[in-house]
Design brief:
Elements lengths: L2 H6 L13 H22 L9 E2 L1 H7 L6 H9 L6 E3 L2 E5 H10 L5 H14 L7
Antiparallel strand pairs: 1-3, 2-3
Length: 129
């Protein structure tokens, strides 16, 4: 009897592996484990680059303006930059810094005009009677 067919049948105690069937059984088990491994790897979320911790030096190098440490300490004192503190050690989460940098974006004149026009049309209260 073929090992695959044998393993698919219910085991009532009468099905035993012979010494000659062991290599087939091991090969079959290896294939099954590799298949399970492939499925698990496909399901695991990939680590995101955005969730990386930066220390003060790393932040100064990462920030587009490459600020000096006293400048960053000033931002921390004003609580304008997101930070985490463990004892005396300052840590910054890269994803939070990226979001903070994006918040500082200035609108273009065209965007401001479009917003103003939308506001005016939305808030009209009839015209002159």
């Amino acid at each position: 009897m073929d090992f695959k067919n044998q393993s698919n049948q219910k085991n009532h105690g009468s099905d035993e592996l012979s010494f000659n069937d062991v290599p087939k059984a091991v090969a079959h088990l290896i294939n099954k484990v590799e298949h399970i491994e492939t499925l698990l790897n496909a399901k695991q979320p990939q680590p995101q680059e955005g969730d990386r911790w930066l220390n003060l030096d790393d932040l100064c190098k990462y920030h587009p303006d490459h600020p000096a440490k006293p400048t960053v300490y000033g931002w921390i004192g004003q609580r304008s930059i997101p930070y985490h503190k463990k004892g005396k050690k300052l840590m910054f989460l890269k994803s939070e810094i990226d979001s903070w940098l994006k918040e500082g974006r200035r609108k273009t004149a065209a965007e401001i005009q479009a917003e103003a026009a939308q506001f005016i049309t939305a808030n009209k209260k009839g015209g002159l009677k």
